[in-house]
UniProtKB/TrEMBL annotation:
Gene3D superfamilies according to UniProt: Cytochrome c oxidase, subunit 8
Organism: Carassius auratus (Goldfish)
Classification via PANTHER family: CYTOCHROME C OXIDASE POLYPEPTIDE VIII, CYTOCHROME C OXIDASE SUBUNIT 8B
GO terms for cellular component: mitochondrial inner membrane; respiratory chain complex IV
Domain of life from the UniProt record: Eukaryota
Membrane topology category: Single-pass membrane protein
GO biological process: mitochondrial electron transport, cytochrome c to oxygen
Protein name: Cytochrome c oxidase subunit 8B, mitochondrial-like
Amino acid sequence: MSCLNRSLNLLRAVMRHQIIPKANISAKPAKHVLSTGEQVFVMVTMFVTILGPSGWVLANLEEYKKRPGGAA
């Protein structure tokens, strides 16, 4: 039991001396306001980048199943 107490005291001592940085929270407006066209471009790019490959795999899933050496 004394070993557990020593470990807890050591843990408390280590945690007591850690420096925790403060978050820089600002309520200022954006320096550069994005236009609607820029927002649409970014959303479409993210959509194609993330969902495009997974959609391709799902669309060709039956073809992948028929390949020799594929999953049984």
